[in-house]
């Protein structure tokens, strides 16, 4: 679906979006419980004969025994719920895009400002981190970039200034014929001509039907690349077979069920982003 491109291409600007699928509140709660369990084991494990083991080395029976000891002690329980088994990582992965900084310099810079979290105003820290991919049209596009409302009704551009952000004009090169002939194209979402802000979409499907719907109306300014080598993901958890990258991740996202308003029924969250 996407061209195989090395991150060492001369002059290329590569950015990444780290994606997780699932309930972020549940994930953070689960990890809080586990970190509390780690602290309990670190301070009390030796009292119960586990001084020569780490928490990860305990078998299920040992963990159950320690859990019961904790829960039977009122003074410990007041510290909160614990778990002694590391939470299962949420599925997800990494999308890497090569930006067309030569053909669409302003659009690319606008995107970089939010990816690198260098742009703030009085009200919002404008970053894609912790925002959702909130719209999914099967075999067509997936959309995100609304850091103010997270539902497609907000966001703003990084031009012309911090204090006075306004939509910016389409760059002609991004409207060229053939820009949407393949999957994995990164483009700006808009509310009509010359209304670019922070929202973007990624094409999932390909073919004449979608090319006609997008071409000339939306600025295409980047494309998905398949990274060579192992780029560590900022997932906050251990690696998992549920994590896939590039076009395989797009295909995974495309299979998520949606409601009647084209919203994914599972949260799709950008948990990290930046320049490679």
TrEMBL record:
GO terms for molecular function: cyclosporin A binding; peptidyl-prolyl cis-trans isomerase activity. Its EC number is 5.2.1.8. It catalyses: [protein]-peptidylproline (omega=180) = [protein]-peptidylproline (omega=0). GO terms for biological process: protein folding. Residues 91-275 form the PPIase cyclophilin-type domain. Keywords: Isomerase, Rotamase. PROSITE patterns: CSA_PPIASE_2 (PS50072). GO terms for cellular component: cytoplasm. Signal peptide: none annotated. Belongs to the cyclophilin-type PPIase family. PPIases accelerate the folding of proteins. It catalyzes the cis-trans isomerization of proline imidic peptide bonds in oligopeptides. This is Peptidyl-prolyl cis-trans isomerase.
